[in-house]
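The passage that follows is intended for readers who have already worked through the single-chain material. We present the inputs for a multi-component assembly, then the predicted structure in tokenized form, and finally a short commentary. You are encouraged to pause after the input and sketch how you expect the pieces to fit together before reading on.
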Amino acid sequence: PDFTKPRPTVGNVSGVEVGDEFRYRVELAILGIHRPYQGGIDSHHNDGAFVAISIVASGVYPYELSSSGELIYTGSGGKPADKEGDQKLERGNLALYNCIATKTPVRVIHGFKRGKDSPSTFTYDGLYRVVDFWTKGQSGSMVFKYRLQRIPGQPKLPSHIVKFLR
Amino acid sequence: PDFTKPRPTVGNVSGVEVGDEFRYRVELAILGIHRPYQGGIDSHHNDGAFVAISIVASGVYPYELSSSGELIYTGSGGKPADKEGDQKLERGNLALYNCIATKTPVRVIHGFKRGKDSPSTFTYDGLYRVVDFWTKGQSGSMVFKYRLQRIPGQPKLPSHIVKFLR
DNA sequence: TAGACGTAGA
DNA sequence: TCTACGTCTA
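Having made your guess, compare it with the prediction:
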């Protein structure tokens, strides 16, 4: 296999199962689970459409995950904490938006710490569908919000992981 | 050996020889050759003195290397190209300065590209002594300059590497 | 060429 | 808490 440059993949990555845990972002990149080294949204042109294929939620931006499998994810850019301007519907944000109309499944990875001084790890949470999109905040600090719904029929995440999700 | 957290080492690192080449900065960090993932100056408190133990010269900041083994290295911070303020004599800059009085040997690593589209690699150049220090530029864009002299008796760097140094 | 939910050490 | 001569893809 070519580990030097993984192909952008829609859907599950061969050999990677729900609950698989990794220590570094670069591992996700090497395996093609999520290629950006820092970015939260991986995207590519798939069949003529520019879509997102995976996202990482590690708490840098606020997000919400409910036990029903609903995930509210915040768009990229604009640095909400710093209020450095509005987010723009481009790059990853646009790609994730385009997943709604194209019904493209998105891999979701959670980054979290098991304990206060533990290092971050990244856990594969499975495939989600982007079902809704809206903006939040006033002009000058506007961010995008995406509602994702976990696709049914996948293994559940271990409860000890859900417990630690921020 | 403990690969998880290399001890700060003054002088040569066991098993690493002049001319050894590496692909990624993280390799230098793992082996304890140069621990910072991005920073150009590695420092630590050695025997009561805060000193530098290694530097990376990869061309982000200007530097000069002469065939006589003299290296002019630019301090860190202030982002000279952007002129974002004066460099400060703190952190790595201070540590490198303290090497003059303490005569602490400093490991030098060169980062360069073999070809235009080749990836950067990092080559261990051996031990240098910091022999001089001055400032350059007007207030508001002032940077530090360090003159280092290669310690005699070490293997020469391959000429094909010297050729590519920027 | 610029952006990005990284990493580790001071 | 902040910095840092990284590293990749779009």
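Commentary: Chain B has three helices and eight strands. Residues 91-102 of chain B form the longest helix (12 residues). How closely did your sketch match?
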